[in-house]
Amino acid sequence: MALDGLGSAYIRSTLHAVQSSNPKRMTSISAGPPDLSQILGPLVVGDLILFTLFGVLTVQAFLYYLAFPRDKPITKVLVYGIYALLLVQFVMVGREAFQRYTSPGAASRVGLGWFYVPVTCGFTSLVVQCFYAWRILVLSGKRAGSIAISMIAFLSSTAAWTAAAFGSQAGPDVISLNSPNENARKMRIFDGIAFISSAVCDVIIAMSMIYLLTRNGRIMHRRTRSVVGRLLRLTIETNTITSLVAITSVATLYAFPDTTFFATSAMLLPEVYANTFFLMLNSRMNLIHGQDSAEAQGDPSMADLSLPPIENLSPSEPNINVRGSAIVIDFPDESKSDDDASSKGH
Fold this sequence. Notes:
The N and C termini lie far apart (99 Å). Strands 1-2 form a two-stranded antiparallel sheet. It has one domain: Rhopdopsin 7-helix transmembrane proteins. The longest helix is centred in the C-terminal third of the chain and has 34 residues. The chain is mostly helical. The radius of gyration is 25 Å and the shape is globular. InterPro entries: DUF6534 (IPR045339). It holds the Pfam family DUF6534. Keywords: Membrane, Transmembrane, Transmembrane helix.
């Protein structure tokens, strides 16, 4: 009975806080109070999944630290910079989760959500998508596609940061984010632009990588096809996940007003982008050797060279090199190889 009394008091205090922070919604709330589970439930789910994803990210960051000590400084700056930013997000989310469950009046407050959702999302998505644009530039040798991807990524991030500016002025609680006031309306518009452009950018990246990795499929050696197959699978999976999370965020933002359904996927998007970025880098550890090479996996100094040495490849096999964080596959001129072989026969 005591617990029931405490629960009822918590709900009454929370609803009173929502009413007092939204005087324009007093009529609708008094006629039918909002379902508290639709306000707190998505936030609880988002907090739990975010904590889990940050744990996975920490493991991946540690593996990267061990496996790739010879990566370029710019790559290390991006990796550790993203991790530091998401560590700040983790601390902010944890602090507000603690306040949410210890202070009924803080249950529906926005708090610093305007920062740790759109600002961190805009930064991580920009880094990851521009990194993919650089890989496409290395593989294709053409700047047009990479510039287009970078511009869309910058548009998405700028829209997210603009939404953060309006969201910080929209109101004190999450319900006010769907209110008709001008700041909330502009926040929803820029959020929609950010999520949609981010999803479009991910789709373009996936299609570009698929085309570039399969255009020489007929002349690939068997081992090279295995490498390309894994790269394709990784590219499709990671970009599909990020685009689906972005689409889910914008869909729930507009389809379910007066709820926090959108917050679950929106707060997870930075973690999803960061995990896919770290996964893409760490996948170099066993792209070729996999379980067949204990030396490459056991010695961190050899992890960046986990592809087969060039001198061990036969003349008919493509040359596979690691340049920083990109895999470059150089296909030999088969006609030249045939001419050399025939000249040696004579």
